[in-house]
């Protein structure tokens, strides 16, 4: 088990990691963050809308499933949003430099961190 700060620090060990945050998707508020390169307050609020929209769409479609992660690929960055399985109402937001990061390793890292995360 890892607390908030340990979890965020673990995410930053991957090559290409720029910043990471844990976000409450009910309020859009940051619960914790690390790194630089992105305005994490603004990104938390905006990406909360992405997570909410996907959850609402899944419900409307009658999909009996859960989101593993949402990947947004920009010209120079990967953004990974991963709702926590064990803690309702939060997601991990992870930003990586796509010129340096390995996407498969990044998805695995955020999955591993999420599985050990406790509040």
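^ structure tokens above, recovered residues below v
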């Amino acid at each position: 088990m890892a607390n908030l700060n340990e979890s965020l620090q673990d995410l930053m060990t991957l090559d290409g990691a720029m910043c990471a945050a844990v976000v409450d998707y009910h309020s859009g508020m940051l619960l914790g963050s690390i790194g630089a390169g992105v305005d994490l307050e603004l990104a938390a609020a905006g990406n909360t809308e992405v997570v909410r929209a996907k959850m609402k769409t899944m419900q409307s479609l009658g999909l009996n499933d859960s989101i593993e992660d949402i990947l947004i690929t920009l010209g120079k960055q990967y953004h990974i949003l991963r709702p926590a399985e064990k803690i309702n109402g939060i997601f991990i937001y992870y930003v990586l430099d796509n010129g340096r990061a390995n996407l498969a390793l990044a998805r695995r890292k955020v999955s591993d961190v999420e599985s050990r995360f406790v509040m």
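Helices lie at 4-11, 40-60, 103-116.
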